[in-house]
Amino acid sequence: MSSPQSTIPVAKPVLGEEEAEAVRRVILSGWVTQGPEVAAFESEFAAFVGAPHACAMSNCTTALHLALKAVGVGAGDEVITVSHSFIATANAVRYCDAVPVFVDIEADGYNIDPSLIETAITPRTKAILCVHQLGMPCDLRAIVEIGKRHSLPVIEDAACATGSEILWDGRWEKIGKPHGDIACFSFHPRKVVTTGDGGMLTTANAEYDRKFRLWRQHGMSVTDAVRHGSKQVIFEDYDELGYNYRMTDLQAAVGRVQLRRLPELVAQRRRLADQYCERLSTIPGLSIPTEPDWARSNWQSFCVRLSDEIDQRAVMQALLDQGISTRRGVMNIHLEGAYSGQGSHRAATSLARSISAQQQTVILPLYAQMTEADIARVVETLRQALAGAGTGRVVRQPEQAVPA
Ligand SMILES: *Cc1c(COP(=O)(O)O)cnc(C)c1O
């Protein structure tokens, strides 16, 4: 069925003349790859989150790879993480020839259940890789304590969490201010701020930061920028295996503008999320996301949970028929073909909550340009779709039963 109304996408980056002008300025400067714009973006990002060091990367997946490598994750090691995440979380572990060890998520949220982490620790465990899923901070306090108790570094997959905050010793602090050992961010267009593709590593550890800078640029002992600016001839060395994981100055120039927009983008997303919560609370059988009192989400994604008998795909289709785009909730990495092979992963606990979250949650549209009328339209369309459950249209068939 076609709709005369405009379509509502699930997400939309906020990009305008300022970003276009920033790219134009970089192009005309003649220096387009990692250089002065990257350096400026790094120091502005470090100041924003409150981290001593910030190192820009080509994306968050490469950031995760170097973070794991920096803390010494190598062949045969184990890294405790969640299956309920974007596949890149676990892929980065496998780039180190290590094994992702999955534990389940909390009963009342979409983040790692800290009470399951210790059961997963073995003599091979080398790190804990937690995820601030959908922008909602995970229980970092509990996770960092477990890490300390077992001398395990904590790496934060903060891909979705730029601008999210956590209450720490009575103060609201940005995700990325070092609480764990290293935090990794993404600037993919589905995240709250974007550079097309891009990533950032933050840490308090100067040695990690030095390694990131070396490895992201082929292991080269001097950067292009230093060689270019030198009055003396410099020959570089390559003492270690490196990668090309650089961010370009074109991307960084966009990132600097996006970072200036970020506080207002997060404030607007929080207002919209409040409107969703208020309106959705009147729909029976639907669970709306909750924010712990120690967390402030940037609402990178707004995820609702359908009751078990409702067919997720049918609800999503009913919304799409009305011009409203949604996504199913977070995937389960262990269910993908790439993780079916021997040794590709280990499940340390039941993953029933992760599986049921994938099958029963729907990500609703949320982007800063949305109006209250858009929110109202999404909610009313969802209400009508779920009312269709009474007629059996969006009810699960028995063979689609959700595992307990
Ligand atoms: C988006 C995302 C990534 C990957 O980020 P890229 O910048 O696209 O590499 C990793 N982890 C999580 C949880 C994500 O949502």
What's the short story on this structure?
Helix content is about 35%, strand content about 15%. It has helices at about 15-30, 35-50, 60-70, 90-95, 115-120, 140-150, 205-215, 225-230, 250-280, 310-320, 350-360, 370-385, and strands at about 55, 80, 100-105, 125-130, 155, 165-170, 170-175, 180-185, 200-205, 295, 300-305, 325-330, 345, 360-365. The site of pyridoxal-5'-phosphate has 14 residues, from helix 3 and helix 4.
Question: Which SSEs are present, and which pair or pack?
Answer:
Elements: H1 17-29, H2 36-49, E1 53-57, H3 60-70, E2 78-82, H4 88-95, E3 99-103, H5 117-120, E4 125-131, H6 140-149, E5 154-157, E6 165-168, E7 171-174, E8 182-186, E9 199-203, H7 206-215, H8 224-229, H9 249-280, E10 295-296, E11 302-305, H10 312-321, E12 327-328, E13 346-347, H11 352-360, E14 361-364, H12 372-387
Parallel strand pairs: 2-3, 2-4, 3-13, 4-5, 5-8
Antiparallel strand pairs: 1-9, 6-7, 6-10, 8-9, 11-14, 12-14
Helix pairs in contact: 1-9, 2-9, 3-4, 9-12
Pyridoxal-5'-phosphate binds next to α3 and α4.
